[in-house]
Write a structure and sequence with these properties.
The protein has about 280 residues and is of the alpha+beta class. It has 13 helices and five strands. The mean pLDDT is about 95. The chain binds glutathione (GSH).
């Protein structure tokens, strides 16, 4: 299993399952859902990305990439949400969140890798269509650049915080990427309850935070009816409530909705970009 080394003595001394996470992080949401599906006891450590707690020396000594989530099991650190949920399902097999058939399991792993590949696109669209209402102040950017060692993240933030923000063609491209993913998901879900058929699996859990995020941006999910039906079924699951909804902060959700409304009025909402504009 892909545990990584840490020199953090306090973390090495932890017992049980500990999750370093953030309420809005899609990668944290999928881990919280699996923990709930499995009925596991865990201790949460909130890493507030808005307050840049992921840029502290302490957090970077746990996850050298400075990203959430990071899970610690009996003093051993694991990062990467897809690896974490796979580990949880193999280590705590009841109830199973994978198909019994090996070919189906390979298909499930492909869907999970696809959800992970969509992370950059999801991040860019989130910053454009939800977070842009609060432009990052120069001093906050300077602090992040000075203290965070993940160059990919700091370069991304520099473009986002710049006067021009993300170039239009990049936004178009990332929306096309998400749209193509949704077309593929919609096709796979046609006539099926879950991505792998009758059994709810890690593939469904890997994807639902991404769909939820696009939903927050007011993406017209009704263009993908089978995906929309699947999303409605997942929303009924207690693990969705526990892993996604229960940690949402109402004023933040209202602010996102108001910003989407503002962009709709300005004619700059998601439906004006990429394939959605066609
Ligand atoms: N592939 C990683 C991606 C982790 C990641 O990108 N986490 C995001 C939240 S979902 C993060 O920490 N972002 C920091 C930031 O946006 O400043 C995983 O699946 O765990």
């Amino acid at each position: 299993m892909p545990f990584i080394d840490t020199q953090n003595r306090e973390v090495k001394a932890l017992t049980g399952i500990h999750l370093y996470h953030f309420w809005l992080s899609s990668c944290s949401q999928r881990v919280r859902m699996v923990l709930d599906e499995k009925g596991l006891e865990w201790t949460g450590h909130e890493i507030d990305l808005e307050k840049m707690e992921h840029a502290t020396e302490e957090f970077q000594s746990i996850n050298p990439k400075g990203l959430v989530p990071a899970m610690v099991v009996d003093g051993r650190v694991m990062i990467e949400s897809i690896d974490i949920i796979d580990y949880l399902d193999t280590t705590y097999p009841e109830p199973p969140l994978r198909p019994a058939d090996k070919d189906d399991e390979a298909e499930m792993l492909k869907w999970m890798a696809g959800a992970d590949d969509a992370q950059h696109s999801l991040k860019l669209l989130t910053h454009e269509f939800l977070f842009k209402m609060h432009k990052m102040p120069p001093e906050a950017l300077a602090h992040l650049v000075a203290s965070h060692r993940n160059d990919e993240l700091t370069e991304f933030m520099k473009v986002w915080a710049s006067e021009d923000g993300f170039p239009r063609d990049e936004i178009d491209e990332e929306l096309k990427f998400q749209h193509d993913c949704f077309v593929a998901l919609d096709g796979a879900l046609n006539g099926r309850q879950w991505l792998l058929g009758d059994r709810f699996t890690l593939a469904d859990i890997a994807w639902v935070p991404n769909v939820h995020r696009l939903d927050l941006m007011d993406y017209p999910l009704d263009r993908h009816p089978s995906l929309l039906g699947w999303y409605a079924r997942i929303k009924e699951r207690p693990s969705y409530r526990a892993g996604v909804l229960s940690s949402e902060i109402p004023p933040a959700m209202e602010a996102f909705a108001a910003y989407c409304e503002q962009r709709r009025a300005e004619g700059t909402d998601v439906t004006r970009f990429g394939p959605l504009a066609a």
